């Protein structure tokens, strides 16, 4: 059968279209697969997997978060904290597990777990470090980029001269020994406004520590460097921090309530420079959600909407490069092999369960 040159070109075009569609579909379908239902944190050498998942309780329609440690064969390892864990969303902002090395990790900021055996509960150490503290209400933890130190911001209650008092402290501990290297106590104010899910404490790439300071009529961002304290920014708070600690997203303004409009800016801790996001427009930051996909790429949702704007920092410019739809109820997000992996409420009654999902997002 004789094929004209024109027919040959048409056949080539059809083949190219079919191949293009096939490769596109394959790309979309190549989502990461995992035998684990929950959010997982592998050890640096990949031998162990720490997992946090949900198991709806028989007695409670709400979700119960459960922690399990697995060996390289996928078999569970019993630890002193295997099972239900609490306060995980107040104590972490996307990282419930920090691995110190191949054998030891920090769980929800409170427990140091050794896969070879042995678990240290840090709460007694915290109480002893805060003078007169009777119980810890809330804490949040971060780890330095060299994994040599970790810090915890503590909010507690205690008696001082037989008077009930709110307490606020920052402890910096050695990851090898869990011994306290620095202790800083501040005056706490019950009038300060707190927002859910913020990065109240973070190390930058130079091991400077930034933290939320409660004051009588608002918030400040404090900074600790070489054991010395100072106020980094007044009438401000940290909304989020890049994984490498270089960039801080902060709100600027006094929060008289969670819905007080504020300006939002991005601060570069290495260059000591900042730029406003969304111009100088004032907006409520209570319903904003910031998640980092890379050290220079983050996504933002307004009013807890399912559509997130994607921003990239490059050559000291912040550019919106697209949008992505993740759904509602997202708690943790990370970027894995070209996909956004998110851990969210599934929308059932009374937050019935958590699910893990993957959404394709190609980043160059």
Describe the structure.
Strands 1, 2, 3, 4 and 5 form a five-stranded antiparallel sheet that branches. Strands 18, 19, 20, 21 and 22 form a five-stranded antiparallel sheet that branches. A hairpin with a 2-residue loop joins strand 15 and strand 16 (218-225). This protein has helices spanning 5-29, 88-91, 123-129, and strands at 39-42, 49-54, 65-70, 76-77, 83-84, 97-99, 104-107, 111-114, 119-121, 133-143, 149-160, 163-174, 180-187, 201-203, 209-215, 218-225, 228-234, 236-241, 247-252, 261-268, 273-276, 283-284, 289-294, 297-301, 307-314, 317-325, 330-336, 339-345, 354-360. Helix content is 10%, strand content 49%. Among the domains are: 122-283, Prolyl oligopeptidase, N-terminal domain (Methylamine Dehydrogenase, Chain H, 7 Propeller); 287-364. The chain has 364 residues and is mainly beta. The protein is built from three helices and 29 strands.
- What is the CATH homologous superfamily assignment of the domain at 122-283? Prolyl oligopeptidase, N-terminal domain
- State the major sheet: 5 strands, antiparallel
What proportion strand?
over 45%
Which whole number gives the mean pLDDT? 79
Outline: globular
Structure summary, number of beta strands = 29
Question: Mind telling me the C-alpha Rg?
Answer: 23 Å
Highest-level CATH class of the domain at 122-283: Mainly Beta
CATH architecture group name of the domain at 122-283: 7 Propeller
Low-confidence stretches: 8-29, 58-62
Structural class: mainly beta
Helical stretch tally? 3
**The CATH topology of the domain at 122-283 is what?**
Methylamine Dehydrogenase, Chain H
Distance between the termini: 46 Å
Helix percent reads under 10%
């Amino acid at each position: 059968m004789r094929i004209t040159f024109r027919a040959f070109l048409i056949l080539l075009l059809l083949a190219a279209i079919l191949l293009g569609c096939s490769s596109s579909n394959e790309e979309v379908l190549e989502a990461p697969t995992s035998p684990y239902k929950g959010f997982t944190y592998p050890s640096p050498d990949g031998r162990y997997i720490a997992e946090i998942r949900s198991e709806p309780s028989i007695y409670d329609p709400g979700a119960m978060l459960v922690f399990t440690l697995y060996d390289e064969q996928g078999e569970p390892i019993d630890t002193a904290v295997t099972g239900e864990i609490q306060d995980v969303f107040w104590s972490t902002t996307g990282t419930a597990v920090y691995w110190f090395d191949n054998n030891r990790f920090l769980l929800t900021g409170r427990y140091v777990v050794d896969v070879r055996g042995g678990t240290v509960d840090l709460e007694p150490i915290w109480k002893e470090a805060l003078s007169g503290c009777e119980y810890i209400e809330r804490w949040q933890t971060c780890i330095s980029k060299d994994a040599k130190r970790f810090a915890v911001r503590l909010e507690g209650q205690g008696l001082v001269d037989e008077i009930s008092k709110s307490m606020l402290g920052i402890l910096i501990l050695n990851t090898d020994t869990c011994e306290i290297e620095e202790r800083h106590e501040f005056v706490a104010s019950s009038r300060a406004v707190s927002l859910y899910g913020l990065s109240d404490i973070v190390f930058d790439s130079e091991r400077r520590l930034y933290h939320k300071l409660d004051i009588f009529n608002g918030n400040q961002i404090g900074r600790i460097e070489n054991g010395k304290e100072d106020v980094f920014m007044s009438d401000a708070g940290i909304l989020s921090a890049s994984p490498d600690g270089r960039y801080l997203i902060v709100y600027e303004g006094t929060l008289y309530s969670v819905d007080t409009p504020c300006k939002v800016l991005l601060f570069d801790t290495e260059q000591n420079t900042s730029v406003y996001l969304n111009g100088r427009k004032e907006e409520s930051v209570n319903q904003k959600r910031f998640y980092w996909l890379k050290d220079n790429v983050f996504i933002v949702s307004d009013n807890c909407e399912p559509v997130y704007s994607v921003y990239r920092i490059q050559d000291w410019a912040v550019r919106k490069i697209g949008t992505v739809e993740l759904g509602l109820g997202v708690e943790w997000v990370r970027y894995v092999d070209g996909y956004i992996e998110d851990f969210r409420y599934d929308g059932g009654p009374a937050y019935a369960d958590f699910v893990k999902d993957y959404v394709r997002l190609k980043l160059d």
